[in-house]
Write a structure and sequence with these properties.
It contains four helices and 17 strands. By secondary structure, the chain is an alpha+beta fold. The chain folds into two domains: 118 residues, 2-Layer Sandwich (hypothetical protein PF0899 fold), CATH 3.30.2320; 94 residues, Tumour Suppressor Smad4. The strands form four sheets. The chain has a six-stranded antiparallel sheet, with no helix packed on it. Strands 10-9-11-12-15 form a five-stranded mixed sheet, with no helix packed on it. Helix 1 packs across helix 2 and helix 2 packs parallel to helix 4.
């Protein structure tokens, strides 16, 4: 089975399995999900060696009959489509230029059983923001140097007895990041390996005591209209 076949079958189980109602004719939820995936793949744009941007605004156009059937499913359908598109984009290494939105619209020019997808992204320059995710909270690294530790004077404070008051520092120059241990008592691990300092690619896990912190670089779009 090829990659496309695997995706389609997994998609069908995930989307159609989320709803008890089935449709004897017309568009199927899995076909909408596949169309969104194709649109993201077609519009993917490489902006640097390890940055691929895809649209973040999607409008799904359906015939009136298909729209009525899909609309009857309510927010459950768009929530499922959003989750699947996000999962596919993560697997492909795509980044969105802003919050993802998926809307269904009725279009008299679209035949029953078919789907058209229009997509766009936010105009303006896309910049990259370094963040640290810890215990379900996201902290933006607004400074060139960010100190993490147990002390109240750290820039990011973690409640872990295994950490020092000033445990590590993260250096970020807008493109690259590095971690340095500040002479902590128990040391620091990066992706499971104990180190004194290390570069930080996106999605790197830093372990301090029993706490995992995930360093990420995320896309931040300038204000502007979708295109």
């Amino acid at each position: 089975m090829g990659l496309l076949d695997s995706f389609e079958k997994g998609l069908e189980r995930a989307v159609n399995g989320a709803f008890a109602k089935t449709f004897r004719s017309g568009i199927q939820p899995v076909e909408i999900a596949s169309a969104l995936r194709r649109e993201a793949d077609i519009k993917a744009a490489v902006v640097s060696r390890d940055r691929i941007i895809v649209p973040n605004s999607f409008v799904v156009r359906l015939s009136a009959d298909d729209y009525d059937r899909m609309h009857a499913l309510g927010g459950a359908l768009t929530d499922e489509l959003h989750a699947l598109l996000t999962k596919h984009s993560k697997a492909q290494g795509y980044s969105f230029a802003g919050p993802v939105s998926i809307a269904l619209e009725s279009d008299e020019k679209v035949a029953t059983g078919t789907v058209r997808v229009n997509s766009g992204t936010i105009e303006g320059r896309v910049s990259w923001q370094a963040v640290i995710d810890v215990d379900g909270r996201r902290h933006s690294l607004a400074r060139a140097r960010t100190v993490i530790g147990r002390g109240s004077d750290a820039d990011i404070t973690i409640a872990d007895a295994g950490s020092s008051r000033k445990h590590v520092e993260i250096l970020w120059d807008g493109e690259r990041a590095m971690m340095r241990d500040l002479g902590s008592t128990n040391g620091t691990k990066v992706n499971g390996q104990k180190v004194r300092e290390a570069p930080l690619p996106s999605d790197t896990t830093i372990t301090i005591g029993r706490t995992d912190l995930v360093f990420r670089v995320v896309a931040v779009a300038a204000e502007g209209a979708a295109r």
